[in-house]
Amino acid sequence: MIERTGIKQMRKRKFYIRKITALALALGLFCTLFFSSPLMANAAPDENKTTEQSEPKQPADSLGLTAKSAVLMNAETGKIIYSVNENQQLPEASITKIMTMLLVFEALDSGKITMEDTVTCSEYAASMGGSQIWLEPGETMTVHELIKAALVGSANDACVALGEHIAGSNEAFVSMMNQRAEELGMGDTFYCNCTGLDADGHVTSARDIAVASAELLRHEKVLEYTGIWMDTLRDGKLQLTNTNKLIKHYNGAIGLKTGTTSKAGCCISAAARRDGMTLIAVILGAPDSKSRFADARKLLDHGFAKCELTDVSEMEVELPEIPVVGGMEKTVGAYADISGNVLTEKGKGKEIKAVVELPESLEAPVEVGQPIGVVKLMLDGEEIGRYDICSDRASEKVTFSAAFGELFRGLFVN
User: Fold this and answer.
1) 3-state DSSP call for residue 243?
2) Burial of 286 (0-12, 13-18, 19+ CB in 10 A)
3) Residues of the chain with CATH 2.60.410.10
4) Helices (DSSP H) in 36-169: which residue ranges?
5) Is 213 part of the annotated catalytic residue set?
6) Which of 97, 148, 257, 298 is catalytic?
7) Which helix (H) or strand (E) holds 224?
8) Considering the chain, what is the average pLDDT of its residues?
9) Exposed / middle / buried, residue 375 (Cβ in 10 Å: 0-12, 13-18, 19+)
10) What is the three-class DSSP state of 204?
């Protein structure tokens, strides 16, 4: 009897323990839901918690630039190293002449025009305001002289005369400029003229100017003009002085073009080359000429201090044979032409890793040289280069005739 009573008491204790435990769990759940509700979340904030508003924010422009928009780009790779409002559409003043000169040098390379061509100034070309060499209607100059006038003296009349010589009319030339910008992926750009004189709708971005500048620099002959500090025209009667002061005062400066109007402010696309690496610093909307050059210096200094080009031509990457489903050849080999330079932080070139991306198999038919995958060059989790992997041989699709032919050759050909 005593034993049964003890058992009953134990069962009662367990029953109450379960009840108390259930009640505690329910109370805990209630508190969690109540105090985490939007109503209570604002009622008693945690004083030790750092709110989003109180977190220190990194400045968008750590170099302290004065310009509205800026870009620092490596010309060889197209890699943007530093930017502020890189896609903001803004007027560009005479930096427009970078695209004008790109079309001129492309026309020279194609043989459409020559440096010795004689160009006759039209009434319209002579009517240009702003920077000019005061061409008279009917006056003639060579293409060489007009390029010098445009790139050293920023002459608007010279640009229009060159555009008319290439395209037949100013309007046709401006249309060519817009077409070329589209081909280069310059989505923020629209040209209304070839000079950069203020016009509604004539806009670009710092990124787009960097792209056009890099393309112009592919024509090495342009450096024979952009590097001129002082020169003359008209048998020494007209003196030209480069508006780009960096040419004389910055180590490695090779060009390219300045621009100033009331709408655009002070602008520049400045290129400099050191140790085989070319950087392009674009400044749009600086408050004055001194600030424009100071901003460009900051960008170029930053790039040369931080970056270098690393040659990856000697990098070895092992690529496997790839199975071909339904092919006469059961596998094909793979190769990748890894060559040239990539942009890296100084001293980090040896840390580059190659990541191979290939499918497990290919569907026949496969052509020789067909892209079948990629090699990505990675540094600190960022892709810095990409190369196609291609098949080194073909594999035709299995057909009855092809299979019969193989069988026949196997039987009768040694």
Assistant:
1) coil
2) buried
3) 312-414
4) 38-41, 97-110, 123-126, 143-152, 156-167
5) no
6) 97
7) helix 223-226
8) 86
9) buried
10) strand
Q: Tell me which H or E stretch contains 292.
A: helix 289-306
Average pLDDT over residues 228-241: 95
* pTM, entire model: 0.79
310 Cβ neighbours under 8 A, 6+ residues apart: 341, 342, 343, 344, 349, 352
Q: Catalytic: 376?
A: no
Question: Using one digit for the tens of pLDDT, what is the confidence trace for 376-393?
Answer: 999 999 999 999 999 999
Q: Alpha-carbon dihedral of residues 161, 167, 168, 174, nearest 10 degrees?
A: -70
For the chain, the straight-line distance linking the first and the last C-alpha, in angstroms and rounded, comes to 104
Selecting among 94, 122, 269, 395, the annotated active-site residue is 94
What residue has token string 């019969």?
A: 404
Q: Does the domain at residues 69-307 carry the CATH identifier 1.10.10.60?
A: no
Name the 3-class secondary structure at 170. Answer: helix
Residue 57 has pLDDT above 50, yes or no: no
* Active-site residue identified among 83, 122, 131, 154: 154
Torsion of CA 90, 91, 93, 95, to 10 degrees: 40
CB 131 within 8 A of CB 211: no
Q: Give CATH 3.40.710.10 domain extents, the chain.
A: 69-307
Q: Which helix (H) or strand (E) holds 258?
A: strand 253-261
The predicted-structure confidence for 113-129, as pLDDT tens digits, reads as follows: 999 999 999 999 999 98
| DSSP assignment of 26-69 | HHHHHHHHHHTSHHHHTTS--TTSPPGGGSPPPPS-TT---SSE
Which burial class, exposed, middle or buried, applies to 166 when counting CB atoms under 10 A from its CB (0-12, 13-18, 19+)? Answer: buried
Furthest-apart CA atoms within the chain: distance in Å? 133
Residue of 9 and 272 predicted with greater confidence? 272
- Known catalytic membership, residue 353: no
Read off the tokens for 321.
């044979």
In SS3 terms, 308-332 reads as EEEECCCCCCCCCCEEEECECCCEE
Closest CA to 147 of 155, 137, 139, 135: 155
Domain 312-414, CATH number (from 2.60.410.10, 3.40.50.1460, 3.30.2290.10, 3.40.50.1000):
2.60.410.10
Q: What is the DSSP letter of 94?
A: G
